Amino acid sequence: MDHGATSNLAPFASISHRFACQVQWGDCDPAGIIFYPTYFRWMDAATWSFMDSVGYTAKRMRSEHLAMPLVSAECQFLAPALQADRCSVISRITRFGGTSFALAHEVMRDDATLLAKGSETRVWGRFASGPGSPMKGEPIPEALKQLFRAS
Amino acid sequence: MDHGATSNLAPFASISHRFACQVQWGDCDPAGIIFYPTYFRWMDAATWSFMDSVGYTAKRMRSEHLAMPLVSAECQFLAPALQADRCSVISRITRFGGTSFALAHEVMRDDATLLAKGSETRVWGRFASGPGSPMKGEPIPEALKQLFRAS
Amino acid sequence: MDHGATSNLAPFASISHRFACQVQWGDCDPAGIIFYPTYFRWMDAATWSFMDSVGYTAKRMRSEHLAMPLVSAECQFLAPALQADRCSVISRITRFGGTSFALAHEVMRDDATLLAKGSETRVWGRFASGPGSPMKGEPIPEALKQLFRAS
Amino acid sequence: MDHGATSNLAPFASISHRFACQVQWGDCDPAGIIFYPTYFRWMDAATWSFMDSVGYTAKRMRSEHLAMPLVSAECQFLAPALQADRCSVISRITRFGGTSFALAHEVMRDDATLLAKGSETRVWGRFASGPGSPMKGEPIPEALKQLFRAS
User: Alpha helix locations (H) across chain A?
Assistant: First the structure.
């Protein structure tokens, strides 16, 4: 992972993406509310869904040996979620760097309550020879960045 | 996965293996007891640990492109487990077939209460060209079977 | 959990229920396919969704101190699932006993490939005094059974 | 959750606690490395283990209707972890406020490689009437703070 590359991330005017999800019984803990790592699972799934929405499907990522390892992630938990709550993760790109990028995610319940606000910084990486082999950050193609630009 | 191969599994006198684990807050659900898929996560981890104990470490499995995909799994839940309960999964091989094998797992709490009894049937498989590529069942080496034989 | 009650389960002609789900990156393992306990997480969520569909919502279950602890669960894995695969869990009740019931679940990919077939046996239980307190199996109301009956 | 209370957190000289863990097959993703929400699961388990170590066991927390809901969490991922890697989470309290507190966690592999550095801010909360009922932040007892003070 190329951590140095995260210092020069430039602000970016991004489209946004909506990923639908629902709190399941097994996503909750004995306090009866969502177990917090669930929000990070959702943010990860939302990022893959965002990529899919601009043409970088899971299948394409696999066949081109691409992945998006994390540099950092954080989340603020604003209101508790309960089993069966239907939610959306609203994601956008906040910055693009040379080989890394950052996303902001908002988790909104369907009654418009903001449950959580988080972010991820990721490297754009390629496996040397397929999944399981070493991965190296590589320059994010300009064409890819344009796919996320708000018009 | 070679499902036909599971019909001719022969009984096997196996060594047993102990895998230690503990029920975490996030492994429990709003009923305040363990969320049942946790037992299957433990049985999977116990199987890998069992393999490790006879010399088939995760590192070796990776470098030899080996994996152990599931044919089936089942579990009976005998007593509820609570957060912080320290447990062991006691595993043994029950049958070896041509390209598949079966394991029995008992989940015991450290106070000797039997919490769950389960089993898995798995294929001994190899990736065509590393993780992510297609996998094919292959004959289980006799030498491997001997590593599990009770003396 | 009332295990004795499982012996006299009677066959039942059930409506069926569809629960939609998708394989996420984090649901897969280094073999690049779904990690098998994910199927049990799905079967659990499908059961809660089935209950919800007949009026036993998560909210009602909570307020009436009801839960559905497991007696046993099993699954056969028929075809591997990959990240992004869209699937359905098709569930129906197979048997109702005095205080327990059994469900059959089929996991179907949206291309109509049957990925997995499983079942769960559960107790119909009530907490003595809310979540976290002891739970006891109790007779399944006839009115509840009728909600699941195929007409 | 009492978010206002997090502004006046004072620095604190804390004992540290070690929580042992191991990367399992199912904790890894198709890239062959740890799926990042696993680190948050570990940090949560490490916090509960830390509490246990000063006498606030899971059993006591349950019987006194105490919980530790999250205000925020973040983590920096410094090096990838592989299946079977044995690790420790080293935790300490960094600040105590009126009703909230913050922890720093370092995830170290047993070969002394620092894998991740994270933190959590939590509220010290009590359920109105047992798990599942509403929870309210309450003043952290001075006696509890002293249990964590480095001597």
Answer: 37-53, 58-63, 142-147
Longest dimension (CA), chain D: 47
B19, B21, B22, B25: best mutation site toward chain D, by most D Cβ within 10 Å? B25
Q: Which residues contact C39 (CB under 8 A, 6 or more apart)?
A: C75, C77, C107, C115, C116, C118
> Is residue A5 within 8 Å of residue A101, measured between CB atoms?
no
Work out the number of other CB atoms within 10 angstroms of the CB of residue C132: 25
Q: Report the C-alpha gap between C103 and C94 in whole angstroms.
A: 5
DSSP A119: E
Number of C-beta neighbours around residue D86 at 10 A = 12
pLDDT at C9: 66
CA distance B28 to D58: 12
Alpha carbons C43 and C119: distance in angstroms, whole number: 8
CA distances from C107 to B41, C28, D6 (A): 19, 16, 45
CA-nearest residue to A47 within chain C is: C25
B13, B83 Cβ separation under 8 angstroms: no
Q: C82 CB near a chain B CB, below 8 Å?
A: no
Ramachandran bin of B118, using left for φ above 0, alpha for ψ from -120 to 50, beta for the remaining angles: beta
Q: Please indicate if any CB of chain B lies within 8 Å of the CB of A134.
A: no
Which of C33, C34, C35, C36 to mutate against chain D (most D CBs within 10 Å)? C35
Show the tokens assigned to D82. Answer: 């592989």
Q: How many CB atoms lie within 10 A of CB A86?
A: 12
Q: Which amino acid is at B58?
A: A
| Residue A77 banded pLDDT, cuts 50, 70, 90 | very high
Distance spanning both ends of chain C, measured CA to CA = 31
Distance CA C79, CA B127 (A): 16
Q: Looking at the complex, does the CB of residue A132 fall below 8 Å from at least one CB of chain B?
A: yes
Tell me the two tokens of residue D91. 């935790």
Closest CA to C106 of C95, C115, C94, C93: C115
Tens-place pLDDT, residues D35-71: 999 999 999 999 999 999 999 999 999 999 999 999 9
Rounded to the nearest angstrom, the minimum Cα separation between A84 and chain C is 6
Bin A132: left if φ > 0, else alpha if -120 < ψ < 50, else beta: left
Chain D residues whose beta carbon lies within 8 Å of the beta carbon of residue B58: 25, 82-84
Task: Please indicate whether, in this complex, the C-beta atoms of B26 and D32 are within 8 angstroms of each other.
Answer: no
Q: D25 and C25: CB-CB below 8 Å?
A: no
Looking at the DSSP bridge assignments, the partners of residue B108 are: B88, B114
Confidence of residue A6 (pLDDT cuts 50, 70, 90): low
Length of chain B: 151
What is the separation, in whole angstroms, between the first and last Cα of chain D?
Answer: 31
Q: How confident is the model at residue B144 (pLDDT cuts 50, 70, 90)?
A: very high
3-class SS at D62?
helix
The answer to whether C80 contacts B69, with C-beta atoms less than 8 Å apart, is yes
Q: Of C84, C20, C14, which is closest to residue C46 (Cα–Cα)?
A: C20
Compare CB distances from A58 to C62, C83, C132 and report the shortest one's residue. C83
**Token couple for A89:** 């993760």
Q: Do residue D25 and residue C32 have CB atoms under 8 angstroms apart?
A: no
